[in-house]
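SAMPLE LOG
Freezer: B-3
Tube label: C17
Construct: single chain, 318 aa
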Amino acid sequence: MGALESAALTAVRDCLGIKPHEVLLVVTDPPLAALAGVLAEAARELAREVVLIEYGERDLNGQEPPAPVPTAMAAVNAVLAVTSKSITHTAARRAATAAGARVATMPGITADCLIRTMNADYHAIADRTRRVTELLTRARVARLTTRLGTDITLPIAGIAAIASTGLILEAGEWGNLPSGEAYLRPEEGKSEGVVVVDGALAGVGMVTEPVRITVKAGVAVEIAGGEAAERFAAQLDHVGRLARTVAELGVGTNDRAVLTGKILEDEKILGTVHVAFGNNVSMGGSVDIPFHVDGIILKPTLTLDGEPLLVDGRPQFA
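STRUCTURE (predicted):
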């Protein structure tokens, strides 16, 4: 068995926990169909049935898959979404998990990423992720700063954080593969400050010139920088005002993840923080639009009620 096939087997056996009596649905689109086939083939050794559906590539992260995909997702034991654009924050995913399906999403996954990250110790990642999730849930105010100029305050009191551990083993659980992040939605309308994205932007890739995003009353009111900033601003303008909502504060916990320009892996990097804009319904918010874009911030300092969680990208948690 080659490295790719071994990594695929780890994903479906250990992380998604496919059992002999289960039906797995693999959904994909043309750019990732070949890799989806490798994962489906690995699952056939484990599952009662593996169903593979390919549909046309979507334009943006967060857009819904076409019929009959949502119906099929809600009718199986587990779903593996190997797609170019994320369906994590979609009504289709929410309906599937509400029906009891386990859903693992792998937007933009590459063979290199799969091989590298499936060699991680996901039990250690899970322990780390749960610890950060607990700290975020307890906190009232998060403050994020960097030497490049990030300085934003995000109210998070009373909001339960979510642990994306990479172990999606119980009915109704969902998350990315690879995984390793703790995240929540900040209180709507109240984040204030500046976010300087110097790592990567979903749908754009790695940024060569930092993207400076000014936030007032929980909304991105100004985007400045080079080509990446222009592309990001164009995405926001295309979707509309709600796309500018500060939707998520996330903390990476995966020690094997590296910066590649693929947000699936980038947002999991241990020692990074990401701030997302757009849809926050999956986190308990009110903004339900077909758009969710994360910006990766390198070497951040993140404090929770004044206590440091990260200092210049160095974890301060056990």
